[in-house]
Specification:
This protein has 343 residues and is an alpha/beta fold. It contains eleven helices and ten strands. It has two domains: 169 residues, Glucose-6-phosphate isomerase like protein, domain 1 (Rossmann fold); 133 residues, Glucose-6-phosphate isomerase like protein, domain 1 (Rossmann fold, 3-Layer(aba) Sandwich), CATH 3.40.50.
Amino acid sequence: MTIAEAQILAELNDAPGAVRRQARALAEPLDLLVARLRRKLPQVVVTCARGTSAHAATFGKHLIERYLNIPVAAAAPNIATVYHQRLHLSDQLFLAISQSGRSDDLIEQATAARASGAITACLVNEVDSPLARACEFVLPMAAGPERSVAATKSFIASLSALARLVTLWMRDDALETALDRLPDRLAAAGTLDWSRALDSFAATTSLITIGRGPTLAIAREAALKFKEMCNLHAEAFSGAEVLHGPVTLVSPSYPILILMPTDAAGSGMRQLARDLRNKAAAVFTAEPGEAGVGYLPVLAADHPETDAICLVQSFYAFAVRLADRRGIDVDSPRHLQKVTRTR
């Protein structure tokens, strides 16, 4: 298979269309959920997800805490599946995220949360799935078929759906109009050329990704995709964590990918990038308005939350090229399958 024939590329090219289709599919279920949430504001939101969907939950945590001031915690599904305990979640929002809606631990945790009196919602691509049946509110990703093992289009659809939830909940006009612009911006982001980083990343066996605020979820997703798609060990860190130990790994042969936020978190991240370069690190920064060695092109800043979503589209296009350079079939990563079922 040539890189041009990869199924994952077709799915990436369809991501803008998925985001555009999603607006209509989500309108009614989001109205119903937000009306319920406004009747009695939850004091906490509990998310439940695995893998790529867990990174989407990280993005949701940022949005909900940033704009709604409600703390968000990630549930440990084994509390329900292994230890057979039920969390006290009466009147709180339980939000499960899953492309397939078929992971047994998420289903059991959602069932337990609903029995405890939680407001249960799931964000799923498969609306006729066991997880959807377990929850009171079903939010369709509307990503359409996704056959490549590495979830990409559904991740982008998850991020935009979470942004739509928060937009409606808080009535944020600026984010709403940014979401209207997002499909066209995603299409442009997918064409950006990050090839100046190919040699460095193709030659390594291990690397770090860094994000903060809206880009922490993107850094975590990028680290996972380096593993899944490129057979490279990668770890993701918040920009606030790197100097607490991981900085000792810095060397010219240990690449660092910094996914720069375009909000208030950006100034500290730019200082971190300067500090790492002063330590002779091989730093590649995806940042608006910068060019030259060590900088990767991104779209001009528009809105911090949708800017982050565009970053992951640019990264995915790069990861496909990196996998091809390393001789890996991105549509069929070794040891993985499309639906992973855990308890």
